[in-house]
Amino acid sequence: MSAYQISQRPRRNRKSAAIRDMVRETQLGVEHLIYPMFLLDGQNKRVPIVSMPGVDRMSQDVMLREIEECMALGLRTFVLFPAVEESLKDKGATYGLRDDNFYVQTAAAIKKRFPESVLMSDVAMDPYSSDGHDGWVEGGQIINDKTLDILAQMAVVQAACGFDIIGPSDMMDGRVGAIREALDGAGYSQTSIMSYCAKYASAYYGPFRDALDSAPKFGDKKTYQMDPANALEAIREAELDEMEGADFIMVKPALCYLDVIQRLREQTTLPIAAYNVSGEYAMLKAAAAQGWIQYDRAMPEMLLSMRRAGASAILTYFAKEYAQMVR
Ligand code: PBG
Questions:
Q1: Which of 31, 74, 229, 279 is the most exposed place for a label (fewest CB within 10 A)?
Q2: What is the pLDDT of residue 1?
Q3: Residue 7 belongs to a domain
Q4: Beta partners for 80?
Q5: Distance CA 78, CA 103 (A)
Q6: How far is 156 from 99, CA to CA, in rounded Å?
Q7: Residue 129 φ/ψ, nearest 5 degrees
Q8: Atom in ligand 1 nearest the alpha carbon of residue 134
Q9: Is 104 within a domain?
Q10: Which CATH number is 288's domain given?
Q11: How many domains does the chain have?
Q12: How far is it, in rounded angstroms, from Cα 302 to Cα 307?
């Protein structure tokens, strides 16, 4: 017996698990996740990252075993980041341009063993740069077009070793076009580009820079990464990347920028990826370790919010744990 005349009662669509499952608007599957992994040179190494509990840097042999486990869980897409020894870093990031470096060699080994996996690279100078910046530095400035030559070369070396998707994370102007032209010129027209399209100058990258020891040696990244206050500028970046030939565009970080994901979803027909960055991972892990948050509910809720905002794919350090959880 109702006390009130309420014709629309939304709770009726929530009254049982079966109905809730039927009307659920957003799905979050293992197929949407991209798992970032940190690579070390050498053998039999697994070195924890203090600010990212549960994430380790791994040598190739260890990483191959890790990928085998992930593939068995249905996780097929990985993005690799190299932790390069300080002595190999220089101004021109030349180690990143060598086809015998451990990063591209490992990619080749992974693709040989797991041809059905999808490997995404990081195109950027900072892991190999003695300046810790994503571009060529001269007189305290980041020189855009000189950087493009280096990035384009790096992308070709990565494509040659079997990377399926090239991921420029540098935020230089014109880099998607420069990389597309270099890839096509070298015969890699089937190699994709996922551009870090709206990448913000964010405090949430801190743990990642610990992992790679890649923090800038001077200044900050605000002359190339975006101002957290801007959203229209993200639309402009997306238009440019799309014109220059990007196959996917990425918003990074994800959590503080869900509105940017949603706006881009309305502007472009390209698939959008969200990067659930190291600081977002660290926050949740830290709160969970204190017992202040229920991890197994908070983690999927975080990932689901990115899908609901409009992301097709999510790069996340939670990928393996999520895959284990839903198995
Ligand atoms: C740099 C790069 C960064 C991340 C991915 N690529 C850090 C930066 O721009 O300083 C951050 C990823 C994360 O925090 O999880 N090329």
A1: 229
A2: 62
A3: no
A4: 37
A5: 13
A6: 10
A7: -100, 130
A8: 16
A9: yes
A10: 3.20.20.70
A11: 1
A12: 9
Cα torsion 171, 218, 207, 232: sign: negative
Which numbered atom of ligand 1 lies nearest the CA of 126? 16
Q: Which two tokens stand for residue 17?
A: 């698990």
What is the model's pLDDT at position 215? 87
In a domain, 211, yes or no: yes
C-alpha 15 to ligand 1 mean position (Å): 43
Residue 8 alpha carbon to ligand 1 centre in Å: 47
131, 205, 217: residue to mutate for ligand 1 pocket, most atoms within 8 A of CB: 205
* 316 CA → ligand 1 middle, Å: 12
Domain that holds residue 297: 27-326
Q: What is the pLDDT of residue 72?
A: 98
Peptide bond into 253 cis (omega under 30): yes
Q: State which residues of the chain have pLDDT below 70.
A: 1-2
For residue 225, tell me if it sits in a domain: yes
In a 3-state reduction of DSSP, which class is residue 70?
helix
